[in-house]
Amino acid sequence: MIKSISRLLSVSALLWLLPAAQAQINGFHANPRVFNDFSTSSLTINTGSGNPANITIDDRNLADDGVGGSFANRHDVLASSDGGASNFTFNTGQGFKISTTMTLSDGSNAPRKEAGIRINGGSGTSDVLFIVNSDAGEIVTFGGPFHSFGSNAGGNGYVPGTPITLSMEYDPPGLVSPTQGRISYTVNYPTRGLNQTFSSLYGNLEGGPGNGSSFGVYGQISPANAADFMTASFSSTSASLVPEPASIGAIALSALAFGARRRVR
After folding, report:
1. CATH of the domain at 173
2. Residues 14, 89: one domain?
3. Mean pLDDT (whole number) for 7-36
4. Are residues 249 and 229 in the same domain?
């Protein structure tokens, strides 16, 4: 009887550690008008429900409001761990994965419209982007290492109005390298026959995104005229967190201790 209770307690401890090791991404939170040069535009953002989610950013009627600049509007939809009430923020030691099948549509390919996956860097670190754009057709990464998967100049660029699947994964320091995180980008674009992955270690002093970072999807438009528009649709957008190395170690140690107790008995 005592052995059974002891085993039950050990199993319960393991089950408790698994969910406690990390938060859960369970929705997405809208962050409209990060850039807001066209403040009177007609903006509609649908963050979907839960995770995965179907997300839409639609911005149109972009007349110059005569205030400030006239460069662009940008809108983010970021991962949330409280059902979409706020952005989930993470530290350098927290890994994650995000994937979406995206379609960027517009009224005019130039000036540039762009959309994709982003990390908003914390503690002074740079933002990281994995995007497509409408004018040059680039399928590229920025902010960390620069890498081009395709472009109009290369004959394999993004065609507005067509679906493309983008995925980003961040492995924190301690999983791949003791001091550096690794970021991986994958593109699957049947329109151009692209199915590729590019990975790189972080080269900054932090070894990854700074503490207080957030991640998700976004759309940005520089309009040709008031009749121009951008619609960025992100279908089956899913995000998850990778356990921190310390949490993985705690779970492994608990499992070893449980096994050792069984062998002794």
Report:
1. 2.60.120.870
2. no
3. 68
4. no
pLDDT score, position 258: 41
Residue 10 sits in the same domain as residue 110: no
Residues 43 and 30: beta-carbon distance below 8 Å: no
Task: Look at residue 100 and tell me whether its pLDDT is greater than 80.
Answer: yes
**Which runs of E-coded beta strand occur in 16-171?**
27-36, 42-46, 53-60, 73-80, 95-106, 113-120, 128-133, 139-142, 147-150, 163-171
Number of domains in the chain: 2
**Do 35 and 140 reside in the same domain of the chain?**
yes
The yes-or-no verdict on residue 158 having pLDDT over 60 is yes
Residues 57 and 42 reside in one and the same domain: yes
Strands 147-150 and 139-142: antiparallel
Same domain for 58 and 186, yes or no, is yes
Contact 164, 131 (CB under 8 A): no
Average pLDDT over residues 7-33: 65
Helix, strand, coil fractions of the chain, as percent rounded to 5: 15, 45, 40
Give the residues across from 28 on adjacent strands: 79
Q: Which domain holds residue 80?
A: 23-242
Q: Quick one: what percent of the chain has pLDDT higher than 70?
A: 83
- Give a three-class secondary structure readout of 6-26: HHHHHHHHHHHHHHHCCCCCC
What is the H or E stretch that residue 250 is in?
A: helix 245-264
Whole-number Å distance between alpha carbons of 39 and 30: 16
Whether pLDDT at 9 is above 70: no
Clarify whether residues 250 and 236 are in a common domain: no
Pairing of strands 163-171, 147-150: unpaired
237-249 confidence digits (pLDDT tens): 999 999 766 544 4
